[in-house]
Amino acid sequence: MNTLFLSTLITGLLLTQAACGQTQTAATAASSCANKPDDISAYAKHNLKQYQGKVLRISDGDTLQVRDQNGQKQRVRLAYIDAPETEQAGGRDSQRQLQRLLDNQTVTVQVVDIDNYKRQVAIVWQQGRDINATQIATGMAWQYASIAKRQQTSQGYQYYHCLEASARNSKQGLWRNSKAQAPWEYRQQRRQAQ
Fold first, then answer.
1. Which residues, if any, are the signal sequence (predicted)?
2. CATH number reported for the structural domain that contains residue 104 in this entry
3. Domain-located, residue 194
């Protein structure tokens, strides 16, 4: 099972890489991060529920809208990652990548929390591929370490951390910009300016 899952993840990352025109494969990052959790329940300390749905809309690089099996629209925030804001450098690229990966696709939503905005915080899976990890591995998002340390399993945390380090080292996506600003810093600056 683990080999099949890793193979599916690597294949998905290779396709993503090709679609984004990036030179080094994100599969290298995934394969070099040997501490990948064995199953989806090992990614989060709390698994509230899981369901399948169809992606309706991508708001930005870490937020989307899904129609669940009951026909209800759900706002979903990708857990443990933080993508650049759309008006921030790299924000539109991150949003476009998530659009390419998930537009009109059926996904599995693994809800791990509900945030202050009443969004479901979740790991989103598409054909066995962890989309949250894909955003990190291709340099389209940061690991949201301050939250992940508290809410992610240590194995899941280390895996995401390794993916980010590999993306940084190979200058994937936003890491091509040596002055890439973390989204939480960007949001804090905007609040202080108001």
1. 1-21
2. 2.40.50.90
3. no
What is the pLDDT, as a whole number, of residue 7? 40
Span 86-119, pLDDT tens digits: 999 999 999 999 999 999 999 999 999 999 999 9
pLDDT at 46: 86
What total number of domains does the chain contain? 1
Contact present, 134 and 101 (Cβ < 8 Å):
yes
Residue 118 carries which side chain, given as an amino acid letter? K
Q: Does 121 reside within a domain?
A: yes
Is position 18 within any domain?
Answer: yes
- List the structure tokens of 27: 């599969």
The tokens for 24 are 């080094």
What is the pTM for the complete model shown? 0.82
Structural domain range at position 46: 2-176
Predicted local confidence at residue 118, as pLDDT: 95
How much is the pLDDT for 42?
79
What would the two tokens of residue 12 be?
């998905």
Residues in the chain predicted with pLDDT less than 50, given as ranges, are 1-24
In 118-190, the DSSP E strands lie at: 120-126, 129-130, 142-143
Residues 117, 50, 156: CA angle, nearest 5 degrees = 80
Judge contact between 128 and 84, C-beta under 8 A: no
The residues carrying an active-site annotation are 77, 85, 119
Report yes or no on 188 lying in a domain: no
